[in-house]
Amino acid sequence: MASWHRFDLVDSSYAMGLMAHRTPAWTEPYVRILDQLIERHTGWWSAADWLTQFGHDPDRTDYPDVYRLLIPPELFGDYDVPGWTANGTQPWGVQMDPVAADGMLFYKGFFLVLLGIRSMIAGDDDRWNQPFEMIRDGDNTFTWTHSQIAEALSRQWLAAPIGCH
Questions:
Q1: For residue 74, what are the domain limits?
Q2: Which of 6, 24, 31, 155 would be 46's cystine partner, CB 3.0–4.6 Å?
Q3: Which helix (H) or strand (E) element contains residue 21?
Q4: pTM of full prediction above 0.70
Q5: 37 and 82 in one domain?
Q6: Residues 128, 115: contact at Cβ < 8 Å?
Q7: DSSP H helical segments within 46-145, as ranges?
């Protein structure tokens, strides 16, 4: 579940935040590293699962027995394993923008952590609160800012108090 490309990016940012507090004289290199992590997170590979796992997992009737630890017994064989993003399931349909999508809560949440750590360290340098492109896959190119992503997630939570995901 945590083996997708974006987890390397986000998990690496935690060290940058800790090191920046310990050695503030190195702020500029930490910000440059975080900018590279964020830049990679805006590309197609950061959301590869959302952009390729459409509908229910076609292999869910053939899951190995070890998956029984993850799936309620009465639903085994008719339930997607945790980590299968299932873009396009009802009632939402296919939503190619992983930030605007009703699903992918974890994607935008972890991306906000990465952006927030960079913002905390960089101070007044608000580079990622200027419009930037996400995914960059022809028709599947979406423009966001740090604040817009946070606002989108907030709207989703307010629209579904029991959970937006």
A1: 55-87
A2: 6
A3: helix 5-22
A4: yes
A5: no
A6: yes
A7: 48-52, 105-122
